[in-house]
Amino acid sequence: MNTQIQRPSQTKSFSTVFLIEMWERFGYYGMQALIVYYMVQRLGFPDERATLVWGAAAALIYVAPAIGGWIGDKILGTRRTMLMGAVVLAAGYALMVVPGQDTWFLFLALGVIVVGNGLFKANAGNLVRKIYEGDDSKIDSAFTIYYMAVNLGAMISQLATPVIKDYVNNLYHNDFGWHAAFAVCAVGLVVGLLNYAMMRASMAHIGSPPDDKPIDWGKFALVALGGVAVVFASAFILDHREVARLFVYIAGLVVLGIFGYLIAIGRKEDRPGLIAALVLVVQTMFYFIFYQQMSTSLSLFALRNVDPAFNVFGVHLWDWSPAQFQAFNPIWIFILSPILAWIYTAAGKRGKDLSIAAKFALGFAIVALGFFTYGAATHFAGPDGRVSSWLMVWGYAGISLGELLVSGLGLAMVARYVPASMGGFMMGAYFVASGISQYLGGVVASWASISGDQLTDPVASLPIYASLFNKLGFAALLCTVIAIAVLPLMKRLSAAHNEHRAAG
């Protein structure tokens, strides 16, 4: 009699993580679509402060998974920690629903979101790694589809929350529309948790060792107390620019120290993979400086210099809310992800797949094209200083395809090159690097801050934004050249890593 227990398929397990990630990102990107506008239009922040505060918040949100990954690996379990993060995130968005907020209350709510993302993000990605561990072509394909989950949730929420905000504000002639939109973000997390509860059986065999043991309530209490401390520390950092800058510098040194330490103490056969991962993490850091422009400089550009009307051959189709332009990023990624995943899998079967390092180089070149599209705004603008909405569509196409080739494969890079025993921790370190870059992206966006008459004069603000976008285009080209220059080194490191893994 065969008593072997039949485990759920990889596809079913992956679908469970895919769906909770989709709803978590629904909440996050719905909030991101509005947060800079909220600070500028509702709380009266100058452009520079709004972009720097959001840059610092994004840095904290992405740095926190370094600790969350370790908690998942060693303390509470990967599955448990991910679910705890989803609950905390729901609470963070719920706090933003409270009307009559002041600056400090907003910073506390963002602090709760920092803790929730720290517990959720690295562990969700690490579960995907565990599902497909050992199959490189499937890992690249799985993480590309996983990235589509991120952007499916983002697309829906970034289209919905600006409409909800405008509808409620206009209906009641007050500012509660902002808080109604944030409420939708909280609801997204609740839906994600309910969905996971229904499909949890497919994940019973996936996780880290602590998941297989009863929960240690003493350790749980320590994690909860630490989370409360991080909430208040995050609020303090957001309220003090110099502290935020110091925090980012320290985080950068910590990331380098982590890699240096692991390379030094690691087994000889693990070192080529770790060095390759370090090179790719540095390249990813440069990418996220460009990425952060979507919620900062490009968002404000859409507010002030883009005609909201969509016209085809002179026929007016619809108007687009400025905040909704960010949705073109996930829309393009949703369209392109399955195509790239199919290309990776097909090329892998024929042994002709490009290396991750080569995909990074190609990605930077395409990002450059996207920013040069925006930089050409001065040539396409009308007498009123506004450009067609279609410029945003095609600019986002370039940035989004570049994102898939760089950021979309960043998680796959960790899964491929980093030893399994360091998976959650290194996934966290990857997010720390991303967070540092998003703060720097906020600093770059502040170079295009406008004030006074420029706030209401598109003709005056247009050249300021176009100048920044052209500089970013040239910076992306420089990144392309550097990525191409390190390809021979990456080829040698990858060959050594694969040789040792095959021998093992």
Kindly list the characteristics that best describe this protein.
transport, 504 residues, transmembrane, transmembrane helix, disordered N terminus, 2% strand, mainly alpha, Growth Hormone, Chain: A, dipeptide transmembrane transporter activity, globular, two-stranded antiparallel sheet
Describe it for me?
This protein is mainly α and 504 residues long. The chain is globular, with a radius of gyration of 22 Å. Strand 1 (309-312) and strand 2 form a beta hairpin. The chain has one domain (11-200, 216-503): Growth Hormone, Chain: A. It is built from 19 helices and two strands. The model is unreliable at 1-5 (pLDDT under 50). It is 77% helix and 2% strand. The protein has helices spanning 10-42, 47-63, 65-75, 78-95, 103-131, 136-172, 176-199, 217-239, 241-265, 271-291, 297-305, 328-349, 356-375, 377-380, 389-405, 407-417, 423-446, 458-485, 487-503, and strands spanning 309-312, 315-319. The two termini are 35 Å apart. Strands 1-2 form a two-stranded antiparallel sheet. It is found in: Cell membrane; Membrane. It holds the Pfam family PTR2. InterPro entries: Dipep/tripep_permease, MFS_trans_sf, MFS_Transporters, POT_fam, PTR2_symporter_CS.
Strand content: under 5%
| Total count of strands | 2
Note the total helix count.
Answer: 19
What would you say the CATH architecture is? Up-down Bundle
Low-confidence stretches: 1-5
Mean pLDDT: 84
Q: H/E order of the elements?
A: HHHHHHHHHHHEEHHHHHHHH
Question: What's the arrangement of strands in the largest beta sheet?
Answer: 1-2
Helix content class: over 70%
Q: Give the number of domains.
A: 1
What is the CATH superfamily label?
MFS general substrate transporter like domains
